[in-house]
Amino acid sequence: EQADQAETKVATLAATIKADEAAVENGRLQLEFCTILAPIDGRTGQLPVAVGNLIKENSDTAMVTINQVDPIKVSFTVPGRYFGELQKYREAGSLKVLIAGPGGELEGTFSFLDNSVDSTTGTILLKAEVGNRGKSLWPGQYVDVRLIITTREGITVVPSQAIQVAQDGAHVFVVKDDMTVEDRRIAIGTIVAGETVVESGLVPGERVVTDGQLQLTNGAKVEDRAASAPGQAAQPAAAGPEPSRSMP
């Protein structure tokens, strides 16, 4: 009988130990719930709660907002008419994103192309991810973004202000050796940084008029203002010829 009582007591104590161990484990779990680990590295902003404030589960007020700053994501839009080109060159892996920062341009990795064109603005949303170790970019900041979809070699470009657009297409005044002008129709392409690609109608080295075109007619004589002597007034019909050139 004493042996049975001893065995019962041992079993009871063993059950008590297991219950205590479970209570300890539950306490550890509850303690872990008191510590919130951020899933990302970043910077915290203004804290809406402070030590001593009462918080509750699933509250509408966030305890803290963490913004990831390295790498940082940049959102921008482009006209919807470029959607086909974006798809084409994205598949080719040639899309290149450059973001203007205080210390110079930062190169980013193209990461997102939206699945529709915004019917209100006619634009499509794109995103890029940029390394930001120097913290030169900050969340919410407005930046200038350049999206390079492809690189073309051996093309002819002219200053965009040299081009006049009429009902029958684009024209330029080409300056001949005798300083008279020829009104020539051209086919134009992409405009980049104030320069327009000329697909046909000009060859590198030909000079075009960049100012005063409204005063010119075919065969009119012009003067190169850049070559005028200091203090000499340019003639009303004179214009500043600039050579068309080939982009390397």
Characterize this entry briefly.
With 248 residues, the protein is of the alpha+beta class. It contains two helices and 15 strands.
Topology:
Blueprint: H1 2-33, E1 43-44, E2 66-67, E3 72-79, H2 83-92, E4 96-101, E5 104-113, E6 123-130, E7 145-148, E8 155-159, E9 164-166, E10 169-175, E11 181-192, E12 195-200, E13 207-209, E14 241-243, E15 245-247
Antiparallel strand pairs: 1-2, 3-6, 4-5, 4-7, 5-6, 8-12, 8-15, 9-10, 10-11, 10-13, 11-12, 13-14
Provide structural commentary.
- The chain starts with a helix and ends with a strand.
- Helices cover 17% and strands 33% of the residues.
- With 248 residues, the chain is an alpha+beta fold.
- Strands 8, 9, 10, 11, 12, 13, 14 and 15 form an 8-stranded antiparallel β-sheet that branches.
Features:
5-stranded antiparallel beta sheet, 248 residues, 2 domains, conserved putative lor/sdh protein from methanococcus maripaludis s2 fold, alpha+beta
Which architecture of the largest domain does the CATH hierarchy give at level 2? Beta Barrel
| Series of H and E elements | HEEEHEEEEEEEEEEEE
Kindly provide the name of the CATH class of the largest domain.
Answer: Mainly Beta
In total, the number of domains comes to 2
